[in-house]
Amino acid sequence: MAASAPCLFSVVGDWRKWKHSPIFPLVGEMSGRTEGGAKELGPNKVPVGAAQMRPSLLDPLFVPITSLAGVGPKVGPLIEKVVPADLGDRAARAGDLLFVLPHSVIDRRNRPGIAGSAEGAIVTLEVRIDRHQPPPRGNRSVPYRVYAHDDTGEIALTFFHAHAAYLEKAMPEGERVVVSGRMEWFNGRPTMVHPDHIALASEAENLPLVEPVYPLTAGLSGKVLRRAIGQALARLPVLPEWQEDEFLRRRTFPAFGDALARIHNPADPIDVSVDGAAWRRLAYDEFLAGQVSLALVRARVRRLSGRPLVGDGRFVEKLRAALPYLLTNSQEMALAEINADLGDPERMLRLLQGDVGSGKTVVALLAMARAVEAGGQAALMAPTEILARQHLATIAPLAEQAGLRIAILTGREKGRERTETLAGLAKGGIDIVVGTHALFQQTVTFHDLVLAVIDEQHRFGVHQRLAITAKGDAPDMLVMTATPIPRTLVLTAFGDMDVSKLTEKPAGRQPIRTVTLPLERLDELVGRMRDAVADGQKIYWICPLVEESEEIKLMSAEDRFASLKPLFGDRIGLVHGRMKGTEKDEAMRAFKAGETRILIATTVIEVGVDVPDATIMVIEHAERFGLAQLHQLRGRVGRGEKPSSCVLLYKNPLGETATRRLSVMRETEDGFRIAEEDLKLRGEGELLGTRQSGTPGFQVARIEAHADLLEAARDDARLILSRDPELQSERGAALRMLLYLFGRDEAVRLLRAG
Ligand code: ADP
Ligand code: MG
């Protein structure tokens, strides 16, 4: 089968990310069009087709920001830092500035009079200028003062390094002037240092009453940014409406342009609130753009495949017989859903969500066996090498008994072994391959990849997910995640992906007792560990990663290993990320085999590591871990018949969030509850592993505030495309503009010219 067959785009939340990826040229093929020359372009070029198809009405927004007045080579890069769009390697454009939204306002309507102005308050005062007092000649360190008064008292307006001529002109003696700025009281005397605004009272109506405050970066002044945004707004053409009038009326949403104008020129703090109608309108637009583009891609991808995979049960039955346990009801249900998808000519795009320890791997194995029965190959991709090897270790003995040919491919396989594996994959001699991102390398080709299983997907970038599916002819795809992703996030990141959930844990699992313990009481813990080791138990001890630059000296895994080694001798092992692959394997093997009883580790063992008879998990500096991570780590124990415990060792003093996290861990083992708390405490960015941005892949929308709009946008997108699949109607044409405005324009390339 061709190695460059169409790949899966519908799991992509963020078009802007992958359009710069090396596999981007596949989009051109997918749409069955050659226009745009996407194929000839290198990885980092934006295809010309995009510009050719863009409605010319939008051209004014697609100029580089450096063509705006006041934005030169120095300011440009600073502005790019505050632009919420993920620019990749393109330059920021005027249109990107529209979505640099203010986070608050300065309310200049506060006019309490001089005497009534509190220290630190932003106030606007109407005063009469009494006299100017320039600094003594030659002494620039003394400020220039302008004295003024109103009915309530006197004030000194203070200027350092002032231009006397400017101040004299702006505030002539005897004139009435409006000044606005921060009030400061010095020894009972009111002053305002460098007012933000100064205007003659006769011209004061020009002062902004409510002024937006934008996110800034060092070196970029609010004034410069406001001016640039103002120009971008002025370039915004009158656009056709892409939302239905009735919908807008019901929600009291303003038009797109009006919403932007209202946020950038607020009359009231509500105008810049994420809960205000203006912001919500834009958030809805952004969600709709995302959902329409995902739906377009999904429709294309589904149409392209169309190969039912039906098995005769010859491998699956043997595997089931070889399992030392019965599947849980959840596992059976998930498997039934997966099998139905595999047997269907439509391509499978399914998320298998299950808390740590819920037994996803065996579901994947049975699905892969079925794909092999149907005559194809399957790949299981893990985020780390340890995990890939562990999967192999669990799967290989079962697979062997069933007669499946299985291999591993990671960065470590070299030489003959690698050559043989590659040949086996290309010729079809290997049925199932387990691997890491090494599976996406160019040298890897499959004879007939029909099912790609991706484990712990939140660790993989978008590109990687796409790359593996490019290795087959639109292979079915199963994404497994242990991080319970809230429904809203599934929607934003994957569009309308089908979801199977493993809601129960395998029978016989004991609850995990979780305790918190301050580091000062380490000795007690060590005493208990001695008893536990004597009793034949196994203990994980996790240390946080230590960066060299960190001020607080933390115990690294190596230090901790050194300090415990004299007490436990040969019973203690160490594994961390900087060790060689073979050393890591050996440490894991020794622990699994019981030769070592204590394994000091960094978070390399966070996901997926499975040593069922480990019963104690110690997490040192637990206060430094996020909730999801703590939950993942804790999930390494409680996998066997014996009761398990988790000790969260923390260092005092504990901050508020850390306290909250640790108590959530004590209170519950429910992954979904923990994910919700996590969302509250950290924001959703980190859940999907995209820490940098607010809501991943979004410029305006904020999941925490706009989740209700997301579902509506999803339904709306479906309805729109069911009526107008090629966006050919008048509304469709307007929607194409929407896609361009929010950088989802790659989806437009999938459409027939409209
Ligand atoms: P995760 O969902 O975290 O990836 P694993 O697939 O690693 O979970 O499974 C965790 C452990 O549970 C493994 O040791 C596996 O063999 C075991 N297991 C899986 N399914 C069952 C079951 N139905 N009954 C008993 N044990 C099971
Ligand atoms: Mg797993």
TrEMBL record:
Coiled coil: none annotated. The keyword ATP-binding applies. Residues 521-680 form the Helicase C-terminal domain. It holds the Pfam family Helicase_C. Signal peptide: none annotated. Residues 341-502 form the Helicase ATP-binding domain. GO terms for molecular function: DNA helicase activity; hydrolase activity. The keyword ATP-binding applies. Keywords: ATP-binding, DNA damage, DNA repair, DNA-binding, Helicase, Hydrolase, Nucleotide-binding. This is Probable DNA 3'-5' helicase RecG. The gene is recG.
